[in-house]
Amino acid sequence: MAFMKVVNPIADGKQVERIYDLDNKLVRIVTKYFENGKNPTKTVWEDVDTSGQVYKIKERKNSENNYTIYYLQNGKVIAEYYGNEQEVIFGKKVVNEEKVVTSTNIFEPGFKKSVVDYQEFIRQNLQYPVEARKKRQQGTVELALEIKGDGSIGRIEVVNAADVYPLLQEEAIRVLSLYGDGFRGAVDIEGNPVTKWMYLPIHFKLG
């Protein structure tokens, strides 16, 4: 989870940032497009494999919550999904050289049941820490979950630890750990189980 980022100034209506791992290998290119050099209109993420080839492209217009993801193999699109961070609204993938409609993105970890089931579990099990409530502490804990190929959870890390009250972080980790068997693993382009990260927000809001 340790990376370094190189961000170029805005030029020709876009800003490009390159993200490298600690071995100085390029892992992601993020391109942000601007209107009149100021207003962001679209963001494109390109993930790069160990051979330097782009295997995943994610596009999102800033005016929309949904995005489109493309998965590539040898430069050809083999799957396309439209949705958001929690669910696939529409998808299609190539199977035996034919396009098949699907609602599951097998290349990313996800929920075994549904988003609704997950949200209901959080609603029933999340407990607002007493001390945090007394101190009027609230906010959103952004969690990164390492989901193994069999769907089990490896590490859980707080992405925005510097911005959220510690007791809220502890409670978010506790409740996500309880949902440990509710995830399904991902596969790579070849269909092999792989370990990947999944990002989920846990909201704490005082009434």
TrEMBL record:
> Where found in the cell?
Membrane
Top-level division of the source organism's lineage:
Bacteria
Its topology with respect to the membrane? Answer: Single-pass membrane protein
**Could you state one GO cellular component term attached to this entry?**
membrane
For this protein, the record's SUPFAM superfamilies field holds: TolA/TonB C-terminal domain
- Give one GO term, molecular function aspect: isomerase activity
Which part of the chain is the TonB C-terminal domain?
Answer: 113-207
Q: This chain belongs to which protein, by name?
A: Glucose-6-phosphate isomerase
Q: Which organism is it from?
A: Mariniradius saccharolyticus AK6
